[in-house]
Amino acid sequence: MATPMRVRAALVAAATGLALTGCAGLTPAKNDTQSGSDVVLRVQGMPAPTDTAALAQFKRLVQDFQAKNPGITVEGTENRWDPLTFSAKLAGKTIEDVIQVPLTEPQGLIARKHVQPITDQLKQWTHYQEFNPQVLQPLSDSAGQVYGIPQAPFAQGLVYNRKLFTQAGLDPDRPPATWDEVRAAAKQISAKTGKAGFVHESKGNTGGWQLTMLTYAHGGSMETEQGGKFVAAVNDASTKKSLELLKAMRWTDNSMGQNQLTDQDDVVKQFAAGQIGMFMGTPGTYKLAKTKFAMKDTADYGVTSLPQAGGNATLGGAEVFMVPASVPKEKVDAAVQWLLFAQAEAQYEPAVAAERAKELAKDPKAAVGVPTLPMFSTAQQDKINAAIKPYVNVELGHFKPWLDGTPKLTLKPEPPVGAQKLYTILDTVVQSVLTKRDANVDALLAKAQADADKMLAAEQK
User: Fold this and answer.
1) Which of 402, 424, 396, 394 is nearest to 156 (CA)?
2) Which residue, of 374, 395, 416, is where some domain finishes?
3) Which one of 56, 108, 214, 331 is at 20 to 30 Å from 389 when CA atoms are compared?
4) Same domain, residue pair 266 and 141
């Protein structure tokens, strides 16, 4: 079980910001000396065209990196993790040289030797020893070899619409701290405003993902270790209580709206339009609501730490950048050079963070100063916060409940084995509870337990 981690505000676009200096202490990657040709590095993580500010900074970042690293050409792609195509691309060696995956995947990729360690290259950076150990631990094997760098580590919380809270007679500066309070607030919002008081995602693996958050808050886990292997733990009291809560909110309180088949984009889009009172998410959803779905009155956005029901825990995570095992050494060196330049530097160097924030703040659609978990020490994060303060354009007070409450919670990782496949199994359970009044929670969990046990056994052969 992870230990509590302090949180501070950080530059939300660290992964796509403008870098003005090279990574101190890191030897530039070399060209392919055998062929004499330039290294062409294909990297995932390029922002979508709708995120105009971040995309412009990504392109500027590429130009700056290439100017400081002659012989390396960076080609960005918008490709993201897709469980339906990822394995085939990896096996066919058609995937990029730097890949972006959710934190559910690194341990499986490491165990199957689909990715390669980058410890030797990382250690060339002067500040390698200053990484937050909790950030690198999920990306490391039992021997301590590191296989990736995270982007904007996060902890799940409860996002809420401050305007709907006010309209419903609730205090937006005192958001729910327990799930009993969430249920009561959702019912009040629905009754007073006619909007959905609370929405739980349910498709594209997001149903199982959010059910895991609820289970953690109730004190449970989705997988447990027995005899050196992981087995399913979905059919227990914590998950049952979570589903019974959703069932009561949906069918007894009628506080969850009419559309029950949603994923994250669906929910954030509705939230941005003022149609949803609360949903589980991170401070980063502010950026998504503003840049992708044109949330008109961003002063309505609020986020608090994940409400609890006896678990005193929340789900932590991140997007992770890794290097496939098939990538040759000269490209690995270039890949790590890029990752440190693009990911790590702005979260360590105050001057770089300030320049990125200044550039990003020029775009009215940008969100500068959205909190994340620190990649380095709290002291270093405080320096970053001070450096970017003149350019912060978000209502930091609206993130205060998350900043104040999250350090008091235990950060638990996503299920360690086959998490995405487990979420697929649990999606069906969530969908049944939200769409069928007579759904039998016990029967649904019994089947999910059996299906999950079979999946985990196959994953660990």
Assistant:
1) 402
2) 395
3) 56
4) no
